[in-house]
Structure prediction request, 523 residues.
Amino acid sequence: MTTRTPYALTTAIPYVNARPHLGHALEYIQSDAIARWHRQLGEDVFFLSGADENSLKNVRAAEAEGVPTRELVDRNTQYFIDLMQTMEVSLDDFIRTVEAKHFAGVQKLIRASRPEDIYKQKYSGLYCVGCEAFYQPEELVDGKCPEHLTPPELIEEENYFFKLSNYQAQLEELIASDTYKIVPAERKNEILSFIRSGLKDFSISRSQERARGWGIPFPGDEKQVVYVWYDALGNYITGMDYAVPENDGAAGERYGRYWPAALHVIGKGIIRFHAVYWPAMLLSAGVPLPKALFVHGYITVNGQKMSKSLGAVVDPLEVMKQYGVEPVRYYMLRYISPTQDGDFSEEQLRQSYTSDLANGIGNLLSRTLAMIEKNADAQVRVMDVTSADEAAVVRKFEETFVEYERLMNGFEFSQALSRVWEAVATLDKYINDKAPWHVAKDPARREELLTIYWVLAEGLRCLGSLLHAAMPKTAEEIWHRLGLAQSPSEVSWEIQKTWGLLQTGFTVTKGAPLFPRLEEPAK
Ligand SMILES: [Zn+2]
Prediction:
């Protein structure tokens, strides 16, 4: 029996005080592309997401609506689950922080911490409920939270603190050496200089009163509730069965198989929690650290950060209803930078749909299959590819597979897809150079014609393999129309990246356009 390499990855878990926006969609699409890519490589993937339900924000949102907090989180969490299902996000599990196994796991993590790392202290500070974080006065912009542009509240109470300063040297070493790897490098450097500037201890509890009794009771002190960031970060292990309540809080089989996770995917706004607090919490509790952190930027709309408090919200469900799920996945992966801020533009989305999808891969597939149906009884025949023109196409795909693999492993989705579209252009040029419509008129050139069809069909098969992570349904549909019964997730990558997977006797089906032309936008 061969053991497959485990590859566990997680998304951040959003506060569910409002509906998801396009920024959430970006993170889910990126994470899903990574999960599908690693499954395609044959790894044993476990893909976890969830909802951060114990936050004070949710309590306030419920109070504002006049509904019980539990009712609000049940309803809003469902919006996130629905969005992920619509977007074909291939989760293996979804952890809700109201679950018993999450409560048990977070309490277990605190109990496992070194006693000298946790102390009680009277504290006063400026707290932004939007961020669920304290700010130093000098971090504010005009007295306001730099993320939310709202004034923080002055909080004064006795809390438990975590002695982050105990871990400064160790964290610096782990991150500098890439033992805990942060991508991209500029984020790694930013965190290293933050660590070197000196780490302040942080509060890991709040009073029951301030929390309105909502949240996880602090172990051994019923007057305190676990601070929501400590609680939320714990989801990455509780969702992997760090503590199973039915089994006296012992870790489950899933934990042994998948932890430490290969990757956390997060947005740049929460990097300190994930690159500093989280590894320190784990070190204190003697839990192995995750291997890597991938940090994406923000999506702006007209140059403005998207958040409910600031306006500028695009509903991802509406966009997908209009353009289809996979064109939106494609656009976000190809035209929004994986790691820098990117601007969402409906005009650019339409343009990418028309030029890359409808006139690009969609047209290439339908014109190829139409020719094979009409002139070769819809049959593909495996042919020699020894002549120079054909060998050049084969070489292009070999190179594309190598580059694609390298870029996907480095989370360079946009560049990976650019390479794939270079291969689309190679096939387009090959058709135009070969002019099979002329060749088809001359019965003496039958072999030549079948060779052209073979190169195009197998080239499209390769494109299906290369599109799987970004557009799984499109990739599968391309394979099915070429007569393959399987999908690109079911065949080993070694075989997929080798020219010649299609076999003689496969019957192709042209079918309806994969990407129908868009209507003109209403004026
Ligand atoms: Zn804030």
Remarks:
- The first strand starts at residue 6 and ends at 11.
- The two ends are 62 Å apart (CA to CA).
